[in-house]
Amino acid sequence: MRLGVISRLSLSRRGLCALLASSKNCSIVLDLASIPEDIEVLRKAQPEVLLYHASGRDSDFEMISRLRSLTPEIKVLLFLDAADEKLEFQAVRAGSYGCVSNATDLDTLVKAIGVVEKGEIWVSRSVASRLISKLSETPVSPNSNGLTPREWKVLGLLASGTRNKEIANRLSVSENTVKTHLYTIYRKLNVDCRLAATLYYFQHAKSDGKYPHKSSVRTGKAKKKDSVLLAQQENPPSE
Question: Is pTM beyond 0.85 here?
Answer without folding.
Answer: no
